[in-house]
Design a protein that fits this description.
Layout: H1 10-19, E1 55-60, E2 64-66, E3 71-80, E4 84-87, E5 92-95, E6 105-108, E7 113-117, E8 124-128, H2 129-132, E9 145-148, E10 177-187, E11 189-192, E12 195-197, E13 200-203, E14 210-219, E15 224-227, E16 232-239, E17 246-249, E18 255-263, E19 270-272, E20 279-287, E21 296-298, E22 305-314, E23 323-325, E24 334-342, E25 350-352, H3 359-368
Parallel strand pairs: 1-3, 2-4, 3-5, 3-6, 4-7, 5-8, 6-9, 7-10, 8-10, 9-13, 10-14, 13-15, 14-16, 15-17, 16-18, 17-19, 18-20, 19-21, 20-22, 21-23, 22-24, 23-25
Antiparallel strand pairs: 11-12
């Protein structure tokens, strides 16, 4: 791992040692006096430090702020540990190109927080240095953003890309911070076979975390993947990813509201594996081209899921229908309400993998639900 280029002045280091990113509550109360003491002023706080170099690498271990007046460059792995990273609205962060140990990506480790609150007018943008410098935007030009939390379960293991980072399972309401109006572009790196950095990776992230108004485009694997966790997501827009656009694994149990997938590349619109039964409310999937695996893919045994107010438009005749299945789904944990299956595909709406699946039972649940059409 590279030595951090983030330098603090001696004065700032001393201040952080006393107060960290918050207030100092260790000062003892004054002794009682016959003469009333003047009203106490607000407890002083220490501002997060703006790095002196715009190139970031290695560990961030003190409260740090990235400002919108500069373009920040990720050079290799940048890991935020036991502190807070604040990112101003309108800030651009670019990842240098490279693979393997030279992959540029960011991890927010368990116990740390990211406060990235963009706005509709001033989104926070993560992209590749290649594209930012005027080159052609494409898959796989840098890694991506990973958040690791404390809302795991026995299914969730160490982060598959870097096993030095392990989630905990101590707090289902864990708070890893805020992502609002964030765009993640031109990302995704394969580190080893079946070990890829996605656009946005969420490992055991808890429900105290806020993730809203997120765009992921052109990731050379999944746009977003979640392993376990209870975090809720809303207003998510995904497109042009090379594998699955939204992938949930290992018992993820949150709610995803207003997920829009426009699929012209890749495999499944939504892939689900592990003992998982998340809720999707307000879902739109439009597949014009797909290699396999359908609009919603119930992968392997034990998969459930609840789908409300959804439209799945399958215009891709790839052998996999709008709802595709492999293995024995947990049918008792599947429900559909106000779901429309549309499109010009010649495939059946409900299909099984070549190794078999639960399409018939899932279709029966669909037919039994209210307001569904196919």
């Amino acid at each position: 791992m590279k030595t951090s280029n983030i330098l603090l002045s001696v004065a700032a280091v001393a201040a952080l040692a006393l107060t960290g990113c918050g207030s100092d509550s260790s000062t003892p109360a004054p002794a009682a006096s016959a003469t009333p003491a003047p009203a106490a002023s607000a407890t002083p706080t220490t501002a997060c430090t703006v790095p002196s170099s715009t190139t970031l690498s290695g560990d961030i271990t003190t409260c740090t702020k990235l400002t919108a007046d500069k373009t920040w460059i990720l050079d290799g792995l940048v890991a935020v540990k036991n502190t807070t990273l604040k990112i101003e609205a309108g800030t651009t962060i670019v990842g240098k190109d490279g693979t393997g140990d030279n992959t540029s990506y960011m991890i927010i480790d368990k116990g740390a927080k990211i406060l990235a609150e963009g706005t509709a007018a001033k989104p926070i943008i993560f992209t590749s240095k290649i594209a930012h410098d005027g080159g052609k935007a494409a898959w796989g030009q840098w890694g991506g953003l990973t958040i690791i939390g404390k809302a795991g379960n026995p299914q969730v293991k160490a982060y598959e890309v870097n096993s030095a980072y392990t989630p905990a399972s101590s707090d289902m309401a864990d708070n890893s911070g805020v992502l609002k109006y964030v765009e993640i572009l031109n990302s995704g790196i394969t580190m080893e076979t079946d070990k890829e950095v996605n656009g946005l990776s969420l490992v055991a992230v808890g429900s105290g975390t806020t993730i809203e108004n997120i765009t992921v485009n052109k990731s050379d694997d999944d746009c977003i993947e979640l392993w376990g966790g209870t975090v809720n997501l809303s207003n998510i827009t995904l497109s042009e990813c090379s594998d699955d656009h939204f992938d949930i694994d290992d018992g993820y149990s949150g709610t995803v509201k207003n997920l829009k997938i426009t699929q012209t590349t890749g495999n499944a619109g939504i892939e689900m594996s592990g003992t998982t039964a998340a809720t999707f409310d307000g879902l739109e999937i439009t597949q014009t081209k797909s290699n396999k695996e359908g609009g919603i893919y119930f992968k392997k045994d034990g998969i459930g899921g609840h789908f409300k107010n959804a439209t799945i438009i399958d215009n891709s005749s790839d052998g996999a229908g709008a709802i595709h299945s492999r293995g024995s789904a947990a049918v008792d944990t599947i429900s559909f309400e106000n779901v429309k299956l549309e499109g010009t595909s010649g495939d059946n709406k409900f299909t099984n993998d070549d190794e078999g699946g639960s399409a018939t039972a899932i279709e029966a649940k669909f037919d039994a639900g209210q307001g569904n059409t196919k």
